[in-house]
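Researcher: Structure for this, please.
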Amino acid sequence: MGAGSPHNKFTKMRKKLLFKILPTVVLVFSLLLNFFLLSKNLGKKYIDSGVYIRDVIDGDTLVTETGSRIRLLRGDAPEIQFCMGKEAKDRLYELTVGKRVILKDQSGDNFGRILALAYVGDDLINEILIREGLLRYEGGSSSEKERLQTAADIARKNKSGIYSSKCRQTENLDNPKCVIKGNIDKSSGKKTYHFPGCSGYENKVVVEKDIGESWFCSEKEAKAAGFEKSQNCYNKTFKQN
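Model: Predicted structure, token format:
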């Protein structure tokens, strides 16, 4: 074909068009690439900077600036009205409110909360509260299992927080005349009471006030609080001294 053939003219036009649109294609690709990298970096920065905590519900639940609730993984704080409940809440507030918290090992629960290990800087909040006896260690798997178990062992050894004689009692320090021990089964929630003469009363039955266990002065009082006589008491009846 000659230089002026239709085929050659079409090839020239295609090359001219390609040279015209190529800079635009390169520009668009560059913009898209920069946007992707920027978004990735912003996302990483947000994750690294954590979530801002504006309040706490109790000793194991945080509230973020958006209203989301975060429950500390592998720890259970006493209810506010129980022994060390207020202390646990106050300590969690001190450690986290107004700060950014990094969350790890995240999952969800049936109440719509985030379960997580919570860090402020290098400090693991779960560990601090467990070590101070303000969280009852629940066990279970986590990336910090050994660290949390060690913290729980330290709390028990030092008799800190819920393991102190204020919360964990074999004798009624507040009213020695009231000697009936009200116990709550941790797995079933069943409430039973024991009195002197019941099997295991002296050396096995402990009143753990951080989970709502209590002392009573009479069987009538214990029953009114929802406790029933333990099978370890057989057919015995409590005799008031």
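Researcher: Any notable elements?
Model: Residues 51-163 form a domain with the OB fold (Dihydrolipoamide Acetyltransferase, E2P) fold (CATH 2.40.50.90). The CA atoms of residues 116 and 164 lie 27 Å apart.
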